[in-house]
């Protein structure tokens, strides 16, 4: 009897043991395959190993700037335009196509919120616009957008022209066999943000400090001496220290002049004006200035570099573009300052088509992450609350369904209106780029000055584009340049 009890006890112990091992295995399979224990239909795809998922493949492809070709496209072919994966510990749904773009981008704050890696948030600052939702987002966006809206733009044009002219006179006036176009546009766009938006002199060391921060933006958030992230954080603190002084000085100046003027002028005055009125805090001003510098200069400099790359590879487009600028120059009144006017910039229609087509083929931003704030039903699948969603520019830019012969360079395709949520270098929905108009001015004004004043040619027309962490030409896009003989 005792033996029988002990035997049955043993059997039940073994069965319980086996059952728990089995259920653990099942749970692991469920977690790693992302299968569905709540009776919901997840999109197809592989979740890979716990935590790591498919991160290694993602980073490998990203480093070569072939995220679409080597990560997204093969999976989209296997599973369809919507598929699941796991990236950096987060279960993620990758979505492609105009309907998905419209759905996820326009449902910002309702179904999804923007979601950046921990290191990006810490380095940009937790008070920057990218971390804000609802009313807080609206308030900061309002302050930024008014400075960069149509009324603000008119006064920006002569400022940008002056900065471009000074930059070119200083760096391009001698004939040179090797000048890094990308480096030059980076310094220039950084100077434009600092001097035209903030009213602060851009010192070369400040640009270096900002670049040190950028190096840590997608690094693992490990704070130990010598880590990329720690170096970036140190640089970030140096910037914050410098900006605190700038912001406090601006505040004093504006208070001396009277609060009523705080709504005028450049972006920094707008933000500090908001601070004086108690709408935002000093930390919010600083974090948003840091974010704006990053948002504005790396993206714009890459867009300019790719525009020149495309012009060099397509002489027939360059010829049309040169005609447009010669015409503007010919009609220009010779008055005192001789800078371009907003009206003249608006005439650069073909140049803008060239720039848009360059950004279609080489979008400075691949796409971005969102996080589901509730279970979302989309195209017959459920995206569980807390999962990430990655929308991509390439998903429409490189799709025959939206752009005929998508890999060919054809600026003329922008003669026709492009349907919404198809062409997205500047994103869409409530988080559409707040600096779109400013980027457009920077690109057009720079192209005008260069093509009317210099002869130039690329040293390596087929130079590779790599990611570090944003796309950059691997050799800095060296050009041979000489002032035009007038
Ligand atoms: C060619 C140049 C540029 C490109 C391609 C670009 C692209 C983008 C994209 C794709 C987004 C949306 C990100 C998302 O949905 O998560 C964005 C947001 C933003 N951009 Fe730009 N950008 C450019 C230039 C600028 C400039 C010049 C400024 C400012 C002076 C700027 C300020 C911003 C801001 C503040 C946001 C955040 C908007 C929000 O969260 O409401 N960008 N940009």
TrEMBL record:
<keyword id="KW-0812">Transmembrane</keyword>
<dbReference type="GO" id="GO:0016705">
    <property type="term" value="F:oxidoreductase activity, acting on paired donors, with incorporation or reduction of molecular oxygen"/>
</dbReference>
<dbReference type="InterPro" id="IPR036396">
    <property type="entry name" value="Cyt_P450_sf"/>
</dbReference>
<dbReference type="InterPro" id="IPR017972">
    <property type="entry name" value="Cyt_P450_CS"/>
</dbReference>
<keyword id="KW-0479">Metal-binding</keyword>
<keyword id="KW-0560">Oxidoreductase</keyword>
<dbReference type="GO" id="GO:0020037">
    <property type="term" value="F:heme binding"/>
</dbReference>
<keyword id="KW-0503">Monooxygenase</keyword>
<dbReference type="InterPro" id="IPR001128">
    <property type="entry name" value="Cyt_P450"/>
</dbReference>
<dbReference type="GO" id="GO:0005506">
    <property type="term" value="F:iron ion binding"/>
</dbReference>
<keyword id="KW-0472">Membrane</keyword>
<feature type="binding site" description="axial binding residue">
    <location>
        <position position="433"/>
    </location>
    <ligand>
        <name>heme</name>
    </ligand>
</feature>
<dbReference type="Pfam" id="PF00067">
    <property type="entry name" value="p450"/>
</dbReference>
<protein>
    <recommendedName>
        <fullName>Cytochrome P450</fullName>
    </recommendedName>
</protein>
<keyword id="KW-1133">Transmembrane helix</keyword>
<keyword id="KW-0349">Heme</keyword>
<dbReference type="GO" id="GO:0016125">
    <property type="term" value="P:sterol metabolic process"/>
</dbReference>
<dbReference type="GO" id="GO:0004497">
    <property type="term" value="F:monooxygenase activity"/>
</dbReference>
<comment type="similarity">
    <text>Belongs to the cytochrome P450 family.</text>
</comment>
<feature type="transmembrane region" description="Helical">
    <location>
        <begin position="6"/>
        <end position="31"/>
    </location>
</feature>
<dbReference type="InterPro" id="IPR002401">
    <property type="entry name" value="Cyt_P450_E_grp-I"/>
</dbReference>
<keyword id="KW-0408">Iron</keyword>
<dbReference type="GO" id="GO:0016020">
    <property type="term" value="C:membrane"/>
</dbReference>
């Amino acid at each position: 009897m005792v033996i029988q009890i002990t035997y049955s006890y043993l059997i039940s112990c073994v069965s319980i043991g086996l059952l728990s091992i089995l259920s653990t295995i099942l749970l692991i399979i469920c977690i790693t395959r992302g299968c569905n224990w709540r009776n919901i239909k997840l999109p197809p795809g592989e979740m890979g190993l716990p935590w790591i998922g498919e991160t290694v493949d993602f980073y490998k492809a990203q480093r070569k700037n072939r995220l679409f070709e080597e990560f997204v496209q093969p999976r989209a072919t296997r599973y369809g335009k919507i598929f699941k994966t796991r990236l950096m510990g987060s279960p993620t749904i990758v979505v492609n196509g105009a309907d998905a773009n419209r759905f996820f981008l326009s449902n910002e704050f309702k179904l999804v919120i923007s979601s950046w890696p921990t290191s990006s948030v810490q380095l940009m600052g937790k008070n920057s616009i990218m971390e804000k939702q609802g009313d807080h987002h609206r308030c900061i966006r309002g302050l930024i957008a008014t400075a960069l809206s149509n009324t603000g733009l008119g006064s920006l044009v002569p400022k940008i022209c002056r900065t471009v002219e000074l930059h070119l006179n200083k760096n391009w006036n001698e004939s040179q066999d090797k000048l890094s176009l990308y480096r030059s546009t980076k310094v220039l766009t950084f100077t434009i943000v600092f001097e035209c938006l903030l009213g602060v002199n851009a010192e070369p060391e400040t640009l270096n400090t900002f670049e040190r921060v950028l190096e840590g933006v997608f690094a693992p958030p490990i704070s130990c001496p010598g880590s990329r992230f720690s170096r970036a954080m140190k640089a970030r603190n140096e910037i914050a220290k410098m900006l605190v002084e700038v912001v406090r000085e601006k505040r004093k100046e504006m208070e001396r002049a009277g609060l009523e003027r705080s709504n005028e002028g450049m972006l920094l005055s707008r933000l500090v004006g908001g601070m004086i009125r108690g709408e935002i805090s000093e930390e919010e001003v600083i974090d948003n200035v840091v974010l704006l510098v990053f948002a504005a200069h790396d993206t714009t400099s890459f867009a300019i570099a790719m525009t020149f790359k495309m012009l060099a590879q397509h002489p027939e487009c360059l010829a049309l573009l040169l005609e447009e600028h010669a015409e503007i120059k010919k009609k220009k009144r010779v008055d005192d300052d001789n800078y371009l006017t907003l009206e003249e910039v608006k005439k650069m229609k073909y140049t803008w088509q060239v720039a848009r087509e360059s950004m279609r083929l080489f979008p400075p931003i691949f796409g971005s992450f969102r996080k589901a704030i509730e279970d979302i039903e989309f195209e017959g699948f459920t995206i569980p609350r807390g999962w990430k969603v990655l929308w991509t520019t390439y998903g429409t830019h490189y799709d025959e369904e939206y752009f005929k012969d998508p890999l060919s360079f054809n600026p003329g395709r922008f003669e026709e209106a492009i349907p919404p949520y198809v062409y997205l270098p500047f994103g869409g929905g409530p988080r559409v780029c707040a600096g779109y108009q400013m980027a457009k001015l920077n690109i057009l004004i720079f192209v005008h000055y260069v093509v009317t004043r210099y002869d130039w040619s690329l040293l390596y027309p087929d130079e590779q584009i790599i990611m570090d962490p944003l796309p950059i030409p691997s050799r800095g896009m060296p050009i041979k340049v000489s002032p035009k003989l007038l």
